[in-house]
Design the sequence.
């Protein structure tokens, strides 16, 4: 399994890039970033200092993953997605001095295993995107997303449940939700969805 880094990519010598990962044209991976095995970092994507990516993540073209984001295994980040990292962004302090790294505290976005963030979405830190959840394209996420939730809109709200395959689940009644692709039946428990223990 060969790691592939295009010559036009800017990958810090202090970054840790896993085996079998591909980093495409004009992408930038900053110092102390950790990129797992078999990841794909698309053209023009940005991975900030200290960002952590698990194995088999896909970061599509021109996505901006600012520190201190953490992405677990199998996370998909669509084209031109932005993960913010500042509560109250300003270029300067109240006296007009250019702000430095010591003048603010970075907050991050966490994406749990298998979650997907659709194209041109914005995740406003600090938020957590749950396991196997899905954010529809163009959404603005301002609060935590439960496991297996499909959220959409500005601000994003849950509109459906999805399974591991990504397809919307079918309501079978009495709190049961079935995946049309795999046949797995999930159970709704209040504001969350629980997969069967053998899934």
Sequence:
């Amino acid at each position: 399994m060969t790691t592939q880094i295009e010559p036009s990519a800017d990958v810090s010598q202090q970054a840790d890039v896993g085996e079998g990962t591909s980093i495409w044209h004009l992408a930038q991976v900053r110092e102390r970033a950790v990129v797992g095995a078999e990841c794909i970092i698309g053209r023009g994507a940005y991975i900030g200092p200290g960002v952590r990516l698990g194995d088999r993540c896909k970061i599509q073209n021109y996505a901006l993953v600012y520190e201190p984001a953490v992405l677990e295994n199998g996370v998909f980040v669509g084209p031109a997605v932005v993960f913010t990292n500042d509560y109250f962004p300003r270029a300067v302090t109240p006296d007009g001095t250019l702000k430095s790294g010591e003048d603010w505290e970075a907050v991050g976005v966490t994406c749990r295993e298998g979650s997907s963030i659709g194209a041109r979405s914005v995740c406003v830190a600090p938020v957590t995107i749950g396991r196997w959840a899905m954010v529809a394209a163009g959404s603005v996420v301002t609060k935590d997303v439960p496991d297996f939730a499909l959220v959409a809109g500005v601000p994003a709200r849950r509109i459906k449940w999805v399974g591991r395959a990504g397809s919307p689940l079918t309501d079978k009644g009495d709190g049961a939700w079935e995946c049309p692709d795999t046949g797995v039946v999930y159970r709704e428990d209040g504001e969350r969805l629980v997969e069967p223990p053998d899934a």
